Amino acid sequence: MDGGAAQFDNEMVHADLPRSLDDVRDAAWRRRLARSGDDWFTVRLDQLLTVAAGTPLRTLFPYTSHNSLHFSRCSDYPFTHDCPWIWFSSDGHFITYPPHPSLVLQGNLADPLPPPLLDTDDPHAAVDAAVNNLPATWRQVWLGDVEAGPGHQR
Questions:
Q1: In whole angstroms, what separates CA 88 from the centre of its chain?
Q2: Is the entire prediction scored with pTM above 0.90?
Q3: What is the rounded CA–CA span in Å between residue 62 and residue 125?
Q4: Minimal CA–CA distance to 29: which of 10, 3, 1, 48?
Q5: Which long-range contacts link 116-120 to residues 24+ away (Cβ below 8 Å)?
Q6: Mean pLDDT, all residues of the chain
Q7: pLDDT reported for residue 35
Q8: Burial of 126 by CB count in 10 Å (0-12 exposed, 13-18 middle, 19+ buried)?
Q9: What is the mean pLDDT of residues 111-133?
């Protein structure tokens, strides 16, 4: 068993122990970055996550839904929907979208979709567009779901 898998197993065994926000967020990023495979979804997701990990998006909690990478200010579902998100395709196409105007709907499930911030074949540009359009509250992150709100401690 490799070190990453052992770390993940250790986190699962001790999931009931109190953990800090940093521990939970680091584990979320490690799980996403530890995905392996050569399928198009994993390859494109890895491209985005590798770039995003070196930006302010690393402060947030990443999650995926319907061929898109989202960033939440809270650790648990239901997530926040007030940060930009990136849709990606098998041919290496990336579209960065702003949050849905209602902030209640997850952007990729909205009909119609909001106008894109950027349509590109460059994962760096897609991530940059997301970073440049983060809400003013992007640094306010917390453990729990969207209903717990900032400042909540479990």
A1: 13
A2: no
A3: 18
A4: 48
A5: 117/84, 118/94, 119/93, 119/94, 119/95, 120/93, 120/94, 120/95, 120/96
A6: 86
A7: 85
A8: buried
A9: 95
Is the CB of residue 56 less than 8 Å from the CB of residue 111?
no
- The structure tokens 């105007």 sit at 101
Task: Quote the pLDDT of residue 92.
Answer: 93
Token duo for residue 80: 């926040």
The residue written with tokens 């997301």 in the block is 130
- 118-123 long-range Cβ contacts below 8 angstroms, 24+ apart: 118/94, 119/93, 119/94, 119/95, 120/93, 120/94, 120/95, 120/96, 121/92, 121/93, 121/94, 122/94, 123/44, 123/47, 123/48, 123/51, 123/94
